[in-house]
Amino acid sequence: MMDKYTGIGASDGIAIAKAFLYEEPNLSFEISEAEDADHEVSRLEAAIDQSREDIQGIRQVAQENLSAEEAQVFDAHLTILDDPELKAGFVGKINDASLDAPSAVREVADMFISMFQAMEDNPYMQERAADIKDVTDRILAHLLGVKIPDLSTITEEVVLVAVDLTPSDTAQLNRNYVKGFVTDIGGRTSHSAIMARSLEIPAVVGVGKIASQVKDGQLVLVNGSTGEVVVEPDQATLDHFQAEKEQFAKLKAEWDSLKDADTLTKDGKQFELVANIGSPKDLDGVHANGAEGVGLYRTEFLYMDSAEMPTEDEQYEAYKVVLESLAGQPVVVRTMDIGGDKHLPYLPLPDEMNPFLGYRAIRIGLDQDHLLRTQLRALLRASVYGSLRIMFPMISNLNEFRQAKAIFLEEKEKLQAAGHEIADDIQLGIMIEIPAAAVLADKFAKEVDFFSIGTNDLIQYSMAADRMNENVSYLYQPYNPSILRLIKFVIDASHKEGKWTGMCGEVAGDQTAVPLLVGMGLDEFSMSAPSILKTRSLISKLDSQEVQELARRAIEEMDSSDEVASMVEAYVADLD
Ligand code: PEP
Ligand code: MG
């Protein structure tokens, strides 16, 4: 009997193969005490040593299979394995609570994992919980004598079906045999989803209950773009997926051929396609997908990655790596955007009724200006290594930009006086993500070098619809003419002053929005790296006059997001 499931499409492509059910090793046991603490500590140490060998081996496979950057996940695992606080926790439980080694590891691991998991609004910290679980499960497996299944030994074509896949599981996947994977849990930003994208293995995550339903050897179809999964398909469904698979292979080849191409419309108008990154680790994806620069470096992830405020030198190193890697292509670095859903353990923020309307981003930077000054100094010092553009988040009025710019100039002067070399062409811009700034864009355009439209926030503030609240997610309406009018006004205002406008919110890579944005003359499109090539391909099919007319009709004649979407989708369907 055919069964259909839907999850989150995490890595594009179609897979058709037999299910390989991957079950987690059984690590259950009763918490118990032990008399001989020294014996337990030496058992623990032996298990940690064996785990270290395992992880080093997996890192080796990952380095061959994946990029150096992805293999770094296992450096992070080695760091967790040798973390003194964790080890002291285990030994403390053995000595003070007289627990045996497995019980000590389980209790301490559970405590750390639930602490990170409790940061519900913070996917980054939740992923750290997954890393700690991955490492401590391995220690436990050695202590309990349980074998961890070896995915690298799969030797026939399969679709892997699992409750979850850890980064170590994913790194061992051989893409010659593992044609796709499907998991019950996970989101687009979980490590395994990110790795699936770089391995180019079609993947659907967050399906709910599939692992307990599917049996080994059943035929499984996976569409990693739409999130569809079909088990034991009928002939018509199988034929349909086969046809889509061939179609996707053709599309992919077409996209890949554009890796080194300029981004041009059919009639030769040029646009800039750049990538959003959260850390230097994302640079491989930037290059692999033919980005023409970085349009948004979310530096808050650098702050969130660390147990304490990163020093000026640490920040300088991170910015320098990114600038050097881009070898003269533009890099837009956004100053710290903390607050809202992003918190730092070492920077206490007040409890607020409406954190997205509260103490956030540039508001914190101007209030606690030593934070902004440190970051700007690090950026100024790194500026000689590439083409740096700095932008300030959450600007709502001109005064904020003027203050931030004054701080920038003061720090620049101080550094120059101290003999530092600093690039003389650093552009200063702002995010347009608050409607008040969008409406005043003509005034801002006289003072800034560029705008970057942050649609994730601009839409939530314009529609008064919290971006984290699924009950109002229907109000996330990127093609609503009200939003399109704001965007158009901002682009036109910048052009009147000879400035440029980019977009770094999710809408920039939205295939329905792209024709409209091209039609409105957006200069720079910044998106997650895997969306770049398909967007370049789409732009190459557009005629600039036609999409200009499309945008005009959307803005002047239409009155709903749906109406606009239907019009654009019909237009795109007709393109060759
Ligand atoms: C935005 O608001 O669109 C944006 C790019 O910033 P963030 O998603 O980090 O708030
Ligand atoms: Mg934002």
UniProtKB/TrEMBL annotation:
Q: What cofactor does its activity depend on?
A: Mg(2+)
The keyword Cell wall biogenesis/degradation belongs to this UniProt entry's keyword annotation: no
- Residues that bind Mg(2+), according to the entry? E433, D457
- Give the top-rank taxon of the lineage listed in the UniProt record for this protein: Bacteria
* Annotated ranges, domain Phosphotransferase system enzyme I N-terminal: 6-128
Which UniProt keyword terms apply here? Coiled coil, Cytoplasm, Kinase, Magnesium, Metal-binding, Phosphotransferase system, Pyruvate, Sugar transport, Transferase, Transport
Where on this chain does phosphoenolpyruvate bind? R298, R334, N456, D457, R467
The residue stretches assigned to a coiled coil in this entry are 34-61
- EC annotation? 2.7.3.9
| Molecular-function annotations in GO | kinase activity; metal ion binding; phosphoenolpyruvate-protein phosphotransferase activity
Q: What does this protein do?
A: General (non sugar-specific) component of the phosphoenolpyruvate-dependent sugar phosphotransferase system (sugar PTS). This major carbohydrate active-transport system catalyzes the phosphorylation of incoming sugar substrates concomitantly with their translocation across the cell membrane. Enzyme I transfers the phosphoryl group from phosphoenolpyruvate (PEP) to the phosphoryl carrier protein (HPr).
* Identification of the protein by name: Phosphoenolpyruvate-protein phosphotransferase
Q: In which organism is this protein found?
A: Aerococcus urinaehominis
